Structures are given as C-alpha cells and as structure tokens.
Amino acid sequence: MARRRGFFAEMQHQAKLSEQRQRAAQRQHDQAVRQAAAAQRAAERAQLAAERASEQDRKRLEREAAQAYVAARVAEAEDMTADLHARLAELDGLLAATLAVDDFVDLESLRVIAQHPPFHRPELQYPLPPPAPLAQPPLPVKREPEAAKGLFGRKQKQEQAAAAAEAQYAADYWAWKAISDALPAQRAAAQAQYEEAERKRQAELAAAVERYKQESAEREREAAEQNEALDQLIAGLAYGTVDAVQEYISVVLANSVYPEWLTVSHSADFEPSDAELKLRVIVPGPEIVPGAKHYKYVKASDEIAPVAATQKETKDRYALLVNNIALRSIHEVFEADRRSLIQSISLELGTETISPATGQPIYVPFVAVAASREEFEKLDLSAVVPLATLEHLGAAVSKNPHGLTPITAGGVRRAR
User: Fold this and answer.
1) Residue 109's CB: how many other CB atoms inside 10 A?
2) Most confident of 43-52, 355-364, 404-413
3) Which of 197, 324, 343, 371 could form a disulfide linkage to 95, CB 3.0–4.6 angstroms apart?
4) pTM listed for this prediction
C-alpha cells in the first residue's frame, strides 16, 4: 500500500520543510540576539557599577550580582517552560490547527516559470580598451655653441664648442631616429596583442553565452515538463483517474503544516470502483511527547532541572495526538476534494519502531477507521472529543498507544 510521494507532492513537502526550517532558524537567531544583548547590557552595568563603587560598596554589589544571577537563571527556566508549554499546546492543538485553514490546493498555483540567474560572465560583454597611442617624439633641436670666454684662444675655443654642438646634435638625431624607426613595429606589436586579447575575449564570451543559453534552455525545458505534468494531473483529476486522485491527495497531505519537529507521513491508494481512499498514516513514537511539565532552577546545584509529568499525563497526551492526527487526516482529504471524487476513507494510523523482542523494525497500528463523506461531514470537529468521535465512527483504537499496544484487526465497520 505504501507509495512514494509524487513530484508535486514532494515539491510541496520540501517547500513546507524549507519554510519551517527558516522560521525555526530565525527564532533561534532572534533569541540568541536578545540573550546576547541582555548579557552585554548587564555586563556593562556591572562594570560601570564596579568602577564607581567604593570598597565599602563592593560586598553589596557582589550580593546584588549574585541575586541578579539567580534571577537570570530563574528567568531562563521560565523561558524553557514557556517553550515547553508552546510545544505541548502544538501537540494538543493538531486537529484545531487544520480547522482554521482551507485544505484545498489550487493546482494552478504549482505552475512554474523558469527563473534564469544573471549572466555569469558580465565582464566579457565589454570590448577591451585599445592600446594607448605611441606618440612620435619631437625632432631634436640643434643647440647653438656657447660663446668663448677669455682673451686667448678664443677662435680655437669657438671651433671646439661648435664641434661639440654638432656632435651632440648628431647623437640626439640618431637616438631620435632609432626611436622613430622602432615605433611602427611597437605600434604593430601593441595592436596585435590587443587584437589577440580581444579575439580571446570574444571567443570566451561566445562560449559563455552558449553555455548560458544551454543552461537556460534546460531550465525552460524542466519548467515546461513540470507544467506539462501539471496539465496532465489537472486533466486526470477532472476525469477522476486513479493516479491523478492519488497524486492530488499526496499534494494536499504534503501541504499540511505540522510543527517542524513533528514528522507525519501519509500514503494513499484510491479505488475508483467504490470511490474509497485507503489512507495510511505514520506518526512518531511516544518519545515525541516531552516527559516534563515545566522547568525549575535548583540553586544548590546551579542547574535547570525538568519537573516530570505524570505517567497518565504523558499517556493521555500521546493518545490525543494519535486520535487528533487520524481525524485531521480524514478531514483534510474530504475538505480538499471539492469534486467529491472520494466518497469514503479507510484509514489506518500507526508508528514504526524497533521491537524490544527481536530488535527488528516493526509497525504498530493504533487506529483503524472507515468513514463515509456524508457521515464525516456531519461532524463539528471544533467541538468533539477525538476518542469519542472515533468510537462513534466505529473505529478500532489502541487502548494504550503510549505503551505501543496495537489494535486488533477485527471490529472496524465499513463506511456507510
């Protein structure tokens, strides 16, 4: 009877898990920030008081610090108790929680549009800057020789100065000419290097664009396939085909929001000949129920200790959880099935555990019930006692699910 979740049911389930994890992480983060801020403020106040205190005041401050520490630990125990009570309230309110929402799932809301990320190599989209121009150096200027000084040898000095100026000009000219002659080759090399770099950029851009197009096409293909499968599901549901009904119910039940720490799984088989859905529900074992009823701070040992709940309180709470989930599952299916394709539900609910006798995995059934749509829709689930409702429906119910006592196979009447 067990079936794996279909694609859309798994997608819906994972989306709900992601939302729950995000909410849980945000709550933990906010709590940590508040605690850190409070601790920082307390430390700053204590430091400031210590700096200002005289020797005579220190003992008083130490007493006050000790009292503040005890008060903080008591507050911590109260916070833990508040968290515990919130968890217990969630366990007790599993049926009421679903009555406040419409369990119908509009399949059109599962239609997807391919989401494309930005192009991963944007830097390749811009041409490289061309090489900076190599300017032609100016022609050298011939310097006039300096005038000769002194009374003797003026002509010779003048000739020597003129010869030196000519030699300097010749050296400057040939240096200029060497640079000028080399410029065309340098310009050509720079241009060639630029063109090679630009060619490489364009090649990398073309490859990156092609890869992006292929990845985008794959995303479009996956979205189209998912939407095509959704169209087939919607069409199949309109005809009431077995696969479509089972897939839709899987989506509905995967969409059911349980606390993130409480895992409930469903599997369903639809029998079109009598419009009956066989539904199997797996719930956590008794360990899901906290064994404490509140926390207290023990000053002597500087510990926050749980105060144990009575055995009856724990047993009753787990039995309520079992019965609530059984009724909740039936309610969610009937409410979501607006076309009344399902006329009756045969439900079995239990847990998977390890046999203490064999050490092997076993399944322990806690509830078996059959209910017709007409009969179930007469119930006002906001005002019922779950065990009494199951007995009214002719269910077989475990006498002690907390003790892993299974139901007997017989005694469950068919849905009317």
Assistant:
1) 7
2) 355-364
3) 324
4) 0.72
